[in-house]
User: Fold these one by one.
Assistant:
Number 1:
Amino acid sequence: MFFFVGSESFFFLALIISYIYFSHTGGVLSESSHYLDIKRTGIFTIALLSSSITIFLADVSLKRLNRKAHRIWLAATIILGLIFILGQTTEYLKLYKLNFTISKNVFGSAFFTLTGFHGLHVLIGILVLLIVLIMINNGKFKTIEHTAFRSAAIYWHFVDAVWIVVFSVVYLGALI
Amino acid sequence: MGRILNSIHRFFSEMSRSSSPNEDYINKLFLWFLILAAIIMIIVIVAVLIGAIHYRSSRHQGEPEQITGIKWLEISWTIIPLLILLIFFYFTVRFMKDIDQPVDKNQQADIIITARQWWWEMQYSKYNFTTANELHIPVHQKLLMRVESADVIHDWWVPELGRKIDAIPGTSNYSWLEASDTEEYKGACSEYCGTQHAGMRILVISETKNEFDQWVQEQQKVPSPPVDSVGQRGMRLFSERTCAGCHSISGIVAVSHIGPDLTHLASRKTLISGVLTNTPKNLYLWLQNPQKLKEGSHMPNFILSNNELEALVKYLEDLK
Amino acid sequence: MKLNIHIPEPTKPIPDIRTGEGLLQWLSTVDHKLIGIMYLCTALLFFVLGFGEALMMRIQLMRPLNNFLSPEAYNQLFTTHGTNMIFLVLTPMLLGFATYSLPLMIGANEMAFPRLNAFSYWIFLLGGLILYASFFAGGMPNVGWFSYAPLSERFFSSTKGVDYWVISLLLMGIGSVGAALNFVVTTLTMRTKGILMNQLPLFVWMVFVNSFLILAAFPVLNAALFMILIDRQFDAHFFVSATGGSPVMWQHLFWGFGHPEVYILALPAFGMVSEVIPVFSRKPIFGYEFIAASSVAIMLLSFGVWAHHMFAVGLGTTFNAFFAASSMLIAVPTGIKIFNWIATMWGGSVQLKTAMLFALALVVNFTIGGLSGVGFSLVPVDWRLTDTYFVVAHIHYVLIGGSLTGGFAAAYYWFPKITGRMLSEKIGKWHFWLYFIGFNCTFFVFHFLGLLGMPRRVYTYPDLPYLGTLNLFSTISACVFGISFILFFWNIFYSLRHGKIAGNNPWNAWTLEWLTSSPPQQKNFEKVPLVRSRRPLWDMLHPEDPDWKRENKNKIKKTGNE
């Protein structure tokens, strides 16, 4: 999973570099940056960051063989992830209403592509965690429970780490 | 034997023709490189042949000595190529700087080339006229070209006159142009740009100062309307059949860049961006069915009658 | 490193390849051997298509101002030919040999992720089929295999060909990344007892290093592909300069993938040759450490050379100089390999079997290709020769002369292991010589064509001196080249029925795959002895002169009786 995550990080690297390049050409950043609502997005960011903590706690519970706590923390992670997705979706809807779309200008293109692919990765992560949770509930995992969960956890931490970079570059970067 | 050597000599001269100080740099660097490459190839081929023939199993029976490596040898064939490349790197950078001399910010380009699908628009900033596909330059003069594109990425390349340079939409690239002889130079677009990339050729004619000045004067003249009836009919058709919507001719219509400027079409040696020689017959065939001669070109077939074709050809071929 | 996943052994005996249960076995298999064979057969199939595309182009080009093909047809052909040969022939060929041989060479019974292995193959095949589906959907892509923007934007390419191309590459990329993941994890966790990382057979090492290239390069391609797709489908503005985008950005992203990609295609071929030459010289590979280290150097450097494809873009002298330096630097590790391979032969007892002939052809032809590449790193020379037939010569010398030739060496070397029968040496020799002569005659003249001023990707050319003659010569030679492939297919067909039975180790080679039967049983190995060196079978056969004693001594070995 580490290698896969390493591979995907190159994907995001390419998108982030492209975003930085495109947002600084043509002066569109100054004209469009007011669309970014840093406070609102900040709240949802906290949700995502907390989900990393909850999944870490789930891992700790599993190591201590506290299966009930493990399942609760895992469920909490999923819920926090869903809150993040909700936040992203409502933000997108708001922006579309304000006519700030992917085709508005090159900043729009880069913004939606970068955050969109990140959101997609979060969605996939939630799906994987859900599947793991359901399979744990059904007692499917005996000896490999640890590996499947740990792989999913690594992926989840990766998704979170990418968001920290993306949030800093996009939202905090727009402040400069 | 002499004839064979002669033709080999001619072949290699054909490949290394140069008419420009910039191209001379390139040729020199390439020649040194070629010599190095030939030496390396001979070494490798001979070594492989020795390995395969001298050490073949019929001559060396049984299991040979199981050597796994000789460190000093491997280190030397790491270091020596590195040093050779270092020398080449030095000359690479030096020649690069000589060819691509810096352009002063305030300097205005002498010639502005706008690449379009699939022809070349040329403007002379000093002389205030536009032409297409055929560039005249005075010999021995160092000119600054600004190369741009109106649609996709193209590439200006005239091998004997120096480096090739991309024409990229949205940016301007600068390149120096200097011819050392009075000759005609053929070039071509060198970045795949669509259907007729192969049909986007370049002709550069280098002339003495007098010839060049004369050509400039001719190009700056506004052509007088035709005196004969056929030509006059042609001129009318030019506007009526919407040719003027894409092509401009000084004195008649407003500027349109979609197709080449035809003001002095008859003065050019080739038609259709180097695809055809400029003769009335070829122009007739072109107007009759453009897609047959340059399939994919943006010029539609106007389904002209024979009379209309004759009139237009007469009119256009009088635009000297 | 140890995996926690337990791969169960089959409870019932499973029939071997040829007595298998028909189509369903192939469609549902997760056995790396069968998947490897599927990759190889797919490569052969698409090769026929790609060669047909090339032949049609050559017929069009054999005369100046020919009209055998329309410009639109020609443009679709060269785009598809390039994409086909790189992604649908060379990639599956190399992945196929790796999938087949890597577990065997490290004494493993299976790959680390067998289901991912199968998935990688099938999604790769889907990608290939989608590319050709574009033919029925309104036109194959016609913007070149590297699809420069803004030509590839919807405004200039309104048919769906480019969209199909994008999706096809995305899917094939997923297949490659999956395979690479498998290779890395298998090599790290499933080596049999005793194999240290610096005792890996060089083919395994090359595939391992190569996998990192795949893992890092394909995501960059994916980013670029998504961006052009979003541009085309959602009216985004990434590469359209009029609305703030940058066509050059596409080039940076694409070549950021594209350059590592060509090393992805080359490194496994180097690995193949590093296996074949020692066996047929009856000596160990000369300078294992330098070859292994040079591969890592190539891997790292390959990420720093991409802009040598962009010297004509006008990015500035400093920028160009940096990439010229890095491109020259990357030539050195390959040069080391060439010299080491030759040194392996010297002092040996060389058997010129067909596999060896192909390996030697790689040494010669790749040197030509590599040298023309070094020529391009000299920026002013690049300014003359880029985008001409000189580049076409270079790419075919490195890709055919390098990758494909290495593949044939591997084919002749491993066919006995895969099928249990030897390929005919007689047909093989004919195949080889027609191939070698046909290839060199077809493509060497391209160097001259480039120097004479013929640009690339042109459906025709004017009747200037020598252009017609050289092109005609190339077309005729291409036919000879094509015949050599017919011989290869015949060799396979004939040898599957009438080939000599191979036995476990027909070449008296020394790596672990030769320990088991030919073809291997489903389980690969019943028992693998403890491995102590790079050539475990040599140690078994020569207990008085084992490799592990040699590897621990000082490497500089000069005998007294010279």
Note: The mean pLDDT of chain A is 84.
Number 2:
Amino acid sequence: MSRKKRRPKKQLIQAPASPGPIVIADRPSTFHSKPWWVSNWWNLEPTGRSDDVTCDIGTVGDLAVAAATIRGNTHRHDGNRCEDAFFISTGTTISGRSFLVAVIGDGLGSAKHSSFGSRRATQLFGNHLTASISKTDTPNEETVNTAVDAAFEMTKVKASKWKIGDLSAPPLSPAKVSSADIETTLTFAVVPADPNANKKRTVLIGSVGDSPIFKLSENKWECLTDSDNGDIVDSATRGVHSADRLTTSMVSIADTDVLFLTTDGIGNFISNGANMLAVGTYLADRWRNPVPLHEFINDMTFDLSSADDDRTAIVCWPYRDQYLS
Amino acid sequence: MSATDVEQVQTGEQVLPFYIVCDESASMAYNGGIDAINNGLPDLHASIASDPLVNDKSRICLISFSDDAEVLCPLAPASDIDALPGVMEKGATSFSAAFRLLKTQIAQDIAMLRADGFQVFRPAVFFISDGEPTDLNWQDSHRELTDKSLNPHAPNIIAFGVDRADADTIRRVGTIAAFLAEQDVNPGNALKEIMRALTNSIVQSSSSSNPTLIIPPAPDGTISLPLDVMDET
């Protein structure tokens, strides 16, 4: 009597096809040429909370949203905390219209408490703006801009108020910490969570500093905020506490577009003038559709020599039903 | 799309070029300057090559000048350089030769880096001399190098003077900083500290997430000279 052939056991765990970060360019960077557990280049922040990875993913209305912050190689090498932050919140107007508020901050390297500064400013601004817009019936450009101005002023005041011992706050009284020491860029977008009849929506965007916003349209990133690309790169930037107001504008986003807010840790490598760079080309291909959480984080940890800054991205895909299949 | 499909697209990697320009006039041998520089170069090379972030982000070029100027080591990552060549005593002190060579070399290097897809930060020049220039009209070639309306690739220059270097001359060479060795300090020792300060400046400038030229504090045995005109950096 023949014995039944045993079926092979199902493999419950599948190894990734290619472990490690995606390498942009023809070789890995020196930093990633050795595993993190042997190189002595990947150090923890001694007081805790290095913040190597922070991520939010979810939906509101017809929007699919993914946001993440990745600690940069410079801070890993120096054993310092990530200085980028993001904040995403949702609200509903009196008339029942849902919306998303997306905020990004990049703590200035010269600021002693920039990690706290970026977290505090993005959360204060995002919360206040969401609450203000939620109290309106049918927000228009004027009412939303008024809410933005109020949120900005409130952020500048409240960012400098904390008690010693508050979570993540500097271990000093606010009187001993200057605004320069908590300085951060701020970039935001207010996105309606459903389109209007012609499958487009009007988004209010704004910024102070060098964290840009892009729109992916027909496989190409278009920068929606000011940029200056000459032969020589300049690294100067402004922040919340040294600026009088945010620079805002209204932009139109089609259902087939993708909205992308980012800090310069990624933004500097998306495009150079009209030309898309390698990172921009790669992310345009990867993020034309929503991706699973682990792939989103992997996309953001690309390896490129000199791309050593903290990285933050908020990506917003409108009309998520188009991605059902 | 895999990462290899982006080969034809520029990467936009960022680089900070540094040019170390050393006086090789005859007097540099007598005051210990040549030895101090040659002893400092291996430390500079090792400090940069051993730091994974600094090495990838910086490029080093060594230029010497006396009657003429020459590139001793073309612009390259430190890890691609086996060892920085030493300097040796030669003849006179032509500042013009150094500035003219810098102007053409920097333009060539930036063009090459841009063609290779790099984003280039404004170059930094560390200029080291122990005496007065033997060419009288060096200011013309200096202006052609440093005036941004004449040269879009104008570098930032940090000038160091030792021994018989004149304070006014060194101050005019530097565009963002200038340092002069104190009179009672041995030139060789001053140059040793200058090499250390220069190394630290390169490492700190390249270590930052957003590369910014870090001007060193006055090296031990030197004083900082106030400049007449500060160019925008």
Note: Chain A has a mean pLDDT of 90.
